[in-house]
Amino acid sequence: MPDLNYIKLSDLNRQIEEIITQNFGGRMFWVVGDVTNHTHKHEKNYHYFDFVEKDPYSNGIIAKISASAWGIGSEKIYNFETVTGQKFTNNINVLLLVSVQFHSIYGFKLNVIDIDANFTLGVLEQQRQATLSRLVAENPGFIQKAGDQYYTKNNRLNHKIVIQRIALITSQTSAGGEDFRHTLDSNPHGYKFQIDDYFTVVQGENNAELLVAKIIEVFNSQIPYDAVVIIRGGGAQTDFLLFDDYNVGRAVARFPIPIITGIGHQKNETITDLMAHSPTKTPTKAAEFIIAHNKQFEENLLLFQKNIVIKSQQFFSYYFQKLASLNSLIVNNSRNIIAHNKDGLVEINQITINTSKSIIFNRRSELTAMASQLASKPKIIVYNRLADIKNIAENIKTFNAQYLKNQRSYLGHYVSLINLMSPKNILKKGFAIIKVNNEIISNPDGIKVGNEIDIILAETQITSTVKDKTTYNGNDFNV
């Protein structure tokens, strides 16, 4: 076996370490990449991860190196999470200040010295603005933008004049939910509320679908809620990314009931806040908003009541003065009319007395003359009527016999006419009487072909059926 020229692995690693130290020792580099395979040793506050660069077109990894952070690097990562609201975890794009190290046992890696929060904030803001632009572009029917203001179907709705029945979307263990309920229940005005809980996870950007499903559940309940409240109590700042999700923003923007948010942030508004009807900073602020809204209604109602009382008082005062003025005017005018017509009334009274006396005197004279006439005229009238009665009696005796004779002559004449026109004599002259259904008929229109008729002659009755009916011209009896 030929002799081979070899070295120990430790010697090779030492040479590599020397070369790296010569070229990279004391130097630091700002490097952009994505975090993968991240682990965090909480007890020591160490971070271990792979720092990679991905192909922007295929998303495949084109560069990869191990990295770690401890000491000042871990403190910088904690500050980064506080400032950005973004948890240092997998699949985030960051700008790191690193030094290059090689260890003969642990190998080649990067040591994190600092992390640029502004770079990540810019990336997050770019993502946020891209989501907002997508919401406006893809949902023109219920999301529009004018200037810096977003107008959605939800924030165009009007709150009901009183908010009492509420759908509350929050975590089952949320301290914010308890704060919200406590603030409503302990309101100093004694307002009562009915709150229905819709529990879900309200933190972690990967739980957006759960939040959307809960919003849909509220809609499918068909309960006529006055408002829907979405709150998040406690948790890290990184949990706000859930509320910048496209599907969450879209569901909030198109929801047909006003949505009030109180997700516990004190800085920029989330996309959910921009899409919602009434964004507030915290769960307590959301409850205070509802109480203030109802208080405004109560104050308006009390103001309306006060205005009614004031207007009523003004109305009564105005018309009381008018009535008093009218009463005074009537009294004064009545006095003036009475005073003005007093002399005329006295004159009329005197004329009435004098005229009455004259009328009574004249009527008394007429009654005296009439009484004298009544005493003499009845005797004359009775005498004349007796004479008339005697004349009538004489006339009755004279004309009675002649009158009876004349009347007998009249009666004999009428008897002759009646006998002449009697049916019996007419039948003897060759005429006939026709009956249809035992009724004498003289109008031929009442006889139809096929009718059965009775023909009555002087001494015979013939029953026959009409076979034909024609118009007769009457020529047989022309003289």
Automatic annotation (TrEMBL):
GO BP: any one term = DNA catabolic process
Under InterPro entries, the record lists: Exonuc_VII_L, Exonuc_VII_lsu_C, OB-fold_nuc-bd_dom
Secretion signal: which residues? none
Q: Which residues form the OB-fold nucleic acid binding domain?
A: 8-115
Location in the cell: Cytoplasm
Where does the UniProt entry say this protein principally localizes? cytoplasm
Q: Where is the Exonuclease VII large subunit C-terminal domain?
A: 154-464
Q: Is Ribonucleoprotein tagged as a keyword?
A: no
**Could you tell me the EC number(s) of this protein?**
3.1.11.6
Recite the UniProt keywords alphabetically: Cytoplasm, Exonuclease, Hydrolase, Nuclease
Q: Which GO terms describe its cellular component?
A: cytoplasm; exodeoxyribonuclease VII complex
| Top-level taxon of the source organism | Bacteria
Q: Could you cite one Gene Ontology molecular function of this protein?
A: nucleic acid binding
Give me the reactions it catalyses: Exonucleolytic cleavage in either 5'- to 3'- or 3'- to 5'-direction to yield nucleoside 5'-phosphates
- PANTHER family to which the protein is assigned, alphabetical: EXODEOXYRIBONUCLEASE 7 LARGE SUBUNIT
What family does this belong to? Belongs to the XseA family.
Name of this protein: Exodeoxyribonuclease 7 large subunit
- Organism for this UniProt entry: Niastella yeongjuensis
